[in-house]
Design a protein that fits this description.
With 164 residues, the chain is mainly beta. It has one helix at residues 2-16, and strands at residues 25-33, 41-42, 46-49, 56-58, 71-76, 79-83, 90-91, 97-104, 111-116, 130-133, 136-140, 145-146, 151-158.
């Protein structure tokens, strides 16, 4: 019975990878706030095209008491992976939202579904940590521990939209 459950879970994850992000423009940033109208930090927007290898490697950026934790983001056709290979372990600051925002260019409802891949993700994300709209993903990591051994993997189901 357990083998059947694992097989079904793997099939549902594989189904999420239909469509693709390859060649699409994505804007990535970090936001930290208790009130979205008065954020503590909104990083610069990083713009890239989804292709082979990591799309973004952010370095420290921020103000007097809130900084971006250096992160590497790798997007593929049906998956997003976040890692922190160049930092010592530590906690993300705790706010109502402290995390990563990815916005995709286009007029089509691109993201049909997104799901954290639990067995590949090492951080204990809350059920509501991932917010998904058709052109935007927001991932809240507030209060969690980052470090070189940590990673987050998100599987995506992407619509068959023209690349714009």
């Amino acid at each position: 019975m357990r083998a059947l459950a694992v097989a079904l879970a793997l099939l549902s994850e594989a189904a999420l990878a239909e469509g693709g992000l390859e060649g699409r423009t994505v804007v990535f940033r970090v936001e930290s706030y208790d009130d979205p109208a008065a954020p503590y930090l909104v990083s610069e927007d990083y713009v890239g095209a989804v292709g082979p290898g990591p799309e973004f490697s952010m370095e420290e950026e921020g103000g007097l008491w809130v900084d971006v934790v250096p992160v590497r983001i790798d997007l593929s056709d049906g998956e997003i992976e976040l890692t922190w290979p160049s930092v010592e372990a530590g906690p993300f600051a705790t706010f109502a939202f402290n995390g990563y925002v990815m916005e995709f260019a286009g007029d089509c409802a691109l993201i049909e579904r997104a799901k954290v891949v639990d067995w590949e993700t090492t951080l204990p994300l809350a059920d509501d940590a991932l917010e998904v709209t058709p052109l935007r993903l927001a991932l809240d990591v507030s209060g969690l521990e980052y470090g070189p051994d940590q990673r987050i993997v998100i599987a995506l189901q992407v619509a068959d939209c023209p690349v714009s």
